[in-house]
Amino acid sequence: MRGISFYEAQAYARWADKRLPTELEWEKAASWDESKGVKRIFPWGNMFEFEDRSWCNVGDTDGPKAAGSFPHDKSPYGLSDMAGNVSEWTGTMRGKKMVVRGGSYRDISESRARTTFSGYTCDPAQRRPHIGFRCARDDK
C-alpha cells in the first residue's frame, strides 16, 4: 500500500496486530545475511548496475510495479522490494518527523537503493505517492 500517511500506516498495522518496524529493524531486515555474518550494501549483495533496471525499481518514471516484480531485490530474510519500488515509513521519529527508508521508483541515484542509506524524514501527516509501508510483528 502506498500514498498514505504515517498515521494511516500505523493504524493499519495496529488493526492487523502488528506495528511499523523501527529504522534499525528495517535496515537489518534489508541487509543482514545471518548465514554469512555480513551486512550487505544492497538486499541481494554488494554489486549493482544502476543502468540495469532489472535489479530493482529505482529511477522509473512509470511508477511502482507489483510487489515482487524484481527477483534480485530480495533480502536474505526473503523480503522483496527493500531497495526500490516505494520507500517505507518506519516507526522511528527524528524531531517531529518520521524516518522513511528504502529507495523508490522516483529516486535517480544508486545511493538511495543502499540498505545503509540513512533515510529521510517526512511529516507524519503527509501522503506521498512514493511512500508505502510494511508491517513488523513481535514473536509471541
In brief:
The protein has helices spanning 6-15, 23-31; strands at residues 32-33, 38-39, 87-94, 97-101, 120-122, 131-132. The chain has 140 residues and is of the alpha+beta class.
Question: Can you give a write-up of this model?
Answer:
With 140 residues, the protein is of the alpha+beta class. It has one domain (6-132): paralog of FGE (formylglycine-generating enzyme) (Alpha-Beta Complex), CATH 3.90.1580. It has helices at residues 6-15, 23-31, and strands spanning 32-33, 38-39, 87-94, 97-101, 120-122, 131-132. The protein has a 4-stranded mixed beta sheet with strand order 5-4-3-6. A two-stranded antiparallel ribbon has the order 1-2. The mean pLDDT is 92.
How far apart are the first and last residues' alpha carbons, in Å? 26 Å
CATH architecture call: Alpha-Beta Complex
What is the third-level CATH name, the topology?
paralog of FGE (formylglycine-generating enzyme)
Order of helices and strands: HHEEEEEE
By CATH, the superfamily comes out as paralog of FGE (formylglycine-generating enzyme)
Alpha-carbon Rg, integer: 14 Å
Describe the sheet with the most strands: 4 strands, mixed
Please state the average pLDDT score: 92
What is the top-level CATH class? Alpha Beta
User: What's the shape?
Assistant: globular
Name the beta content range: 15-25%
Q: What is the β-strand count?
A: 6
